Amino acid sequence: MLGAVAACLAAPAAAEITPTEVRFDNGAVAQSLTGVPGDPAAGAKLLSSRADANCVACHMIAAQPDVAFQGDVGPALDDVASRYSEAQLRGIVANSKLTFAGSVMPSFYKVGGHVRPGDGFTGNPAPADLGPILSAQQVEDLVAYLLTLKP
Amino acid sequence: GAASADPDPTATLIVNDQIEIATRAPAPDHLKDVFDTVQSGWLYRTEETRALQMDDFDNPAMVFVDLGLEQWDGVDGSEGKSCASCHQGIDSMKGVRASMPKVNPAGNDLWSLENFINACRTQRMGAEEWKWNSDPMKQMTAAISLQSRGMASTIRIDGAAEPYWEQGREIYYTRYGQLELSCANCHEQNAGKMIRADHLSQGQINGFPTYRLKDSGIVSIHGRFVGCIRDTRGEPFKPGSPEFRALELYVASRGMTLPIEGLSVRH
Ligand code: HEC
Ligand code: HEC
Ligand code: HEC
User: Fold this and answer.
1) Pairing of strands B217-219, B264-266
2) Is residue A90 a part of any domain in this protein?
3) Are A71 and B234 an interchain contact pair (Cβ–Cβ within 8 Å)?
4) What is the pLDDT of residues B172-193, one digit of tens each?
5) Nearest ligand, CA of residue B139?
6) Exposed e or buried b per residue across A71-85, where buried means at least 16 C-beta atoms within 10 angstroms of its C-beta
7) Among residues 79-118 of chain A, which lie with CB inside 8 Å of chain B?
8) A115:B176 CB<8 A
9) What domains appear along chain B, each with residue ranges and CATH number?
10) Does the first or last residue of chain B, that is N or C, have fewer Cβ atoms within 10 Å of its Cβ?
């Protein structure tokens, strides 16, 4: 039984930085979390996916006019690459609160410290080994996409 | 997008062309540093949804009121009694919803309307208690709530109720779930904004129980709280739990200057 569980939790690739190992410098994260370049097309999809990142729940993005119902809780993401560096964007996606203190924006690459965390949107309690909302590569994909957003 | 982000300032809730129910009111004193005005969730809905609440023939919640009235007259339990045996007509429940939740007769707990109903069922009728979100319970709270339509809230937040109110406030400002969002993050800081397809209201409960078009059914106050905490990737408290009853008192107090709507309609 335990063996089966361990086998399911695929070990992170050797170069991958786990959520607790991420080094923030004034909110920014200089080092890639995976060492593998992000895929901007995958990042574009993630941004508007309901299931995981769902960034458009709070952000409008003119570059994705086909995505219905974009929220306005946060600022529009248009041209965001001209306002922030790659390291800053990685830090904002991984843990926005280290850039914007007290932000309502969720921390997407963080484990532990949650109050009554659930198992996704089921309402059931989270498993003890609850991972971050996004994988390291998903963060890199999003960052790669955000970097394409410039005038 | 942002175009529809503010409630229509001209919308007025008049039910059956007769009963005008205020949907805006000065914020209660304890909330003055947060809002000048408190606003009913009705204002944040589309014109079509708002219209459904303006005529009892169109309001889908009224079917559930009728079912509740049948329960009211229905004999149940070992004592051979119905609610009507002791309380007579349902109009004897006028003002009851407007006073909820409140400290129980024994003075040792905070009770919601559902608790009072179950106390009568188990202690006075010898009947089984109804589950919090069961159909008969929601039908009964619907029928009872309608009797307070348009009435001012009479909840108490001082004296014996104060510790519960404090507990509820604490919960309101706690950031739950993996998304780390509190009630206040959405309904205080961002009321009026769009979160994906949803227009964020102030999260008031004066309109509850509510008929939700999405669910084609009645949603209780605690049912709504469950949904909102689930949406934070969180583990909600149980309906009827001490935490949700305390939260109910605190949220009710944030809208205590708004009249009870009886039965609202939401999308
Ligand atoms: C629940 C709301 C919410 C969600 C979901 C959310 N954000 Fe944010 N985001 C905000 C808010 C609010 C700000 C503004 C910072 C502040 O003041 O807290 C922000 C700021 C940002 C900024 C800086 C923008 C600027 O111009 O300053 C970026 C970049 C960003 N978010 C990206 C994302 C990405 C990518 C996702 C999804 C992975 C995401 N956000 C999900 C609320 C959200
Ligand atoms: C992630 C954002 C979010 C959080 C956090 C949240 N809600 Fe909500 N809530 C919503 C949305 C969206 C709706 C539906 C639109 C509306 O009425 O605001 C809603 C609706 C409601 C309603 C119904 C209002 C009406 O008039 O029909 C109540 C009551 C409510 N919320 C209370 C709460 C309470 C109490 C909490 C904290 C336990 C909470 N919410 C946390 C997003 C949220
Ligand atoms: C055998 C008598 C009896 C029966 C049957 C009965 N009740 Fe009661 N009920 C009472 C008494 C006595 C009280 C407490 C005094 C009061 O508030 O009227 C009470 C209180 C209540 C209250 C709280 C009122 C308030 O102002 O706080 C509600 C709500 C209520 N009953 C609903 C019901 C419902 C619904 C039923 C049927 C499912 C029912 N009762 C059946 C005797 C009864």
Assistant:
1) unpaired
2) yes
3) no
4) 999 999 999 999 999 999 999 9
5) 3
6) bbbbeebeebbeebe
7) 104, 106-107, 114-118
8) yes
9) 2-59+153-266 (1.10.760.10), 71-146 (1.10.760.10)
10) N
